Amino acid sequence: MFGFRKKRSGRILKGNGDSKVRDEDSSRGQVFSSQLKENLALLAARFQGAQDFTIREFDCFGKFPACVLYLSSLVDKEMIASHVVKPLMYAPNHMPMQQDSFQQAKPLIRQVLFDADGKAENQVSIALDLLLRGSAVILLDGMTEAIIVNVQKVEKRGIEQPKSEQVIRGPRDGFIEHLQTNLALLRVRIPSVDLKIKVMQIGTITKSQVAIVYMDGITEPTLIQDIEERLNAIQIDRILDAGYIEQFIQDNPWSPFPQIRSTERPDVAVGNLLEGRVALLVDGSPYALICPTTFAMFYQTAEDYTERTLIMSLTRMVRVIALLFSLITPSLYIAVLSFHPELIPTKFAIAVASGRAGVPFPTFLEVFMMEAAVEILREATVRMPQQIGGALSIVGVLVIGQAAVMAGFVSPITVVVIALTTISSFATPAYNAAMAFRMLRFPIMLATGAFGFFGLIGALFLVNNHIISLKSFGVPFFTPFSPMNFGELKDTIIRAPLRHLLDRPEELHPLNQRRLKSYGKDLPNNPLDPPMKAGERP
Amino acid sequence: MITRERQITALQVAAVLVSSLIGVSILALPRIVAEKVNYGAPLATLIGIILGAIGLGAFTYLGMRFPKDFLIEYSEKVIGKWPGKFMGFLFISYFAVVLGLVVREFAEIMNTMVLAKTPTFAPVLVILLLVVITARNDIVTFAYIQFYYAPLMIVPMLLLILIAIGDMKLENIMPFWGNETSLPDFLWAGASVASLPFLQIGMTVITVLIPFMQQPAKAIKGMWWGVSISSIFILLTVLLTIAVMSAEEVVNDFWPTMAMTRLIQLPAQILERVDLLYFMVWVASALTTISSGYIMIAMLGHRLFRSRSHRSLSILLTPVILIIALLPDNTLQTYGWLEKVGMWGLCLTIIYPVFLVLVAKIRRKGVSS
Fold this sequence. Notes:
The complex is a heterodimer.
Chain A: H1 2-27, H2 36-46, E1 53-60, E2 64-71, H3 77-89, H4 105-111, E3 118-121, H5 124-132, E4 135-140, E5 146-150, H6 179-189, E6 195-202, E7 208-215, H7 221-232, H8 242-249, E8 261-263, H9 266-275, E9 278-282, E10 288-291, H10 303-306, H11 309-339, H12 346-355, H13 363-383, H14 386-406, H15 412-425, H16 431-469, E11 471-472, E12 475-476, H17 530-533
Antiparallel strand pairs in A: 1-2, 2-4, 3-5, 4-5, 6-7, 7-9, 8-10, 9-10, 11-12
Helix pairs in contact in A: 6-9, 11-13, 11-15, 11-16, 13-14, 13-15
Chain B: H1 10-21, H2 29-37, H3 41-65, H4 71-79, H5 81-113, H6 121-135, H7 139-164, H8 183-194, H9 197-209, H10 219-245, H11 247-250, H12 256-263, H13 275-304, H14 310-326, H15 331-363
Helix pairs in contact in B: 1-7, 1-9, 1-10, 1-13, 2-3, 2-8, 3-8, 3-9, 3-10, 3-15, 4-5, 5-6, 5-13, 5-14, 5-15, 6-13, 6-14, 7-10, 7-13, 9-13, 9-15, 10-12, 12-13, 13-14
């Protein structure tokens, strides 16, 4: 769908794109004239046909003709009335009422519009740009500058718990679509001057704001430079979501694996910033992109660090096993059943065989069809209206599954295998990584169906080699497993106690390696310990 | 951005050596040695490994003496431009033949073990496909890949020893110098071990690693680790196979190591057949060895013909190796050819590097360390 639309809109753009460029060129460098009528005609001509473009004419201090221009869809009208128009109607007593004191914008801003966020501008193109972003432009007759007041008001939703990354223990706030709010969520967590935010505009038409957030003094400067270069190279008409940025700047667009982690959680973003990574926030997207990313980050959650070591290490292992399950269980089942049934103990083999007695298809076809059916069900559940989603998925899973077994269409053990695969794939916290694994099991199944165990190993060999060969901003994707970094293995499949995680990840080349001074070495012993109380300090 | 050309560490060199030196011929190794020196097989294997280590040591020394050069370049520097090029070409064609035969050997095992009714062409093609795709990576990534597989081979082997310890019989390996054998027999058996393709590939692969090492001077350390781990592995495999099956039995089976895993049973009968699990390990080891050989030829060819990258050559090589792999009529012929070709290959992989070292020392070429 997207490809089709992109093509069409691209052609349309080409059609009138030239005239647009010419227009902008003509207004670039143009300054406001002293005639109000001229300025008004200039801007009104540009906004011809834009219904929300509003011109409010009034007499400044009851004498001088003036007008306010704004886009009614973007601004707070009450604010214009109370903070802009009203003060301009009555001249303050301390201000001399002479014509020439209004030839300049500065005194007006400083003495009349003092409670608004205003500035003077004589460039038409800049005024135009700010007008389009929700500012009001005030033009006075006889003044060669425009006063621009920020009165933007954008509808935004409240901060909610992120739906895609829920935790039981940990903060509950998530990013929203409004960039300034998202930056505030980060700034509140890092009250440090070292938190740097660079904002750039990407998208020739949407001019979406993209913020590069990093920690000065931790993040390797060449990384920031590299990211900026990659962002600057994007010349597209629109950036509608962080996903657009991700797809442009990732290293290998043909890989099934995501090479940049996206998160809805400010605490995750902050944790990664402090490790020396860079976060990218896009106005209009509730996701932050974390670069560079390694494979291990996809099965880790924020909760891993808020709960206790042993429990969360076990949970991580469970997730890794689930990830492997979702990749190879169906293939393993096919390999054993249709190539080497002698591998499994005899009693079990007999049970499996009797379950499959009435099934008309070879194992491969049976498993493949069921996996495809589950994928259809999953996709349908995501797309269907929420009110009927729950009911329908129960019908789909329980009723159809049961009926298929009863009808002799599939064997019960196949249903078990499919269920195991499906549930396993949802144990991965990162949805996009889980999807990669879910989809990869189909080619692996095909290879296994053709060559049995050899096909399975061969396919896994390729998948493995592909993962190892990936790079995210120059960092090998499979760090710290291969290339091996022994020191970092303590925060991968297991998570060592926080007091042992002394260093930031080495592969990011952080400017400041240490994140923790050693803890617990010279702390006093428990003062309430009975022998201590009795003064029997050893 | 943060990519650096020279990234391979000594540990990775060791891992590449381990996963290259453990190849699919290890399945046939106990038979090949036992045919010549019966009970002396482990000792003969040790001699073979030492012979191989001489070649490997010479290559490592040359690599450290010419830390930026590949085999082709330092051959040219040491013995002159055209002789060097000729030797490089000889190397490439020799390893192309060896690789074709190894692929065929592996496919034969596959046909016997798991894909009985599949025509040989199919596994040969699939193996080549897997290897060519892997060989498209650059050398550094390739070292990462090999590093990942090395423990996946060593750990199951150690487990196998643990499981098999009850089935081992001491009388099967005594006397360790064999019955009615002579020193020439041992040397001949050792040479045939050293001529096995996986040893040859493992010995030569270090020549493409050293130019990408962080500190080429540490190559020797990586080499020692790699050689000792893999030689322990190979020796243990031979010892275990003979100890479980006895030398008389070993010669009756084409792939005695495989047969040995078939004899072993897991406790509590969790799985009926252990050999299939180990089959996966052999597949992994074969794939890593073959891709080592493949990327090595591609790299040598890239340096010889001064092509833009080794990738184009790796594609051109595929049909050549495919044809060589399909030439032998059967398993027996494959092994016959392998042995003949491998014996002549010893001139290239042991005598030639030692010769180069001597000439380089006499002519004072390269950085003397």
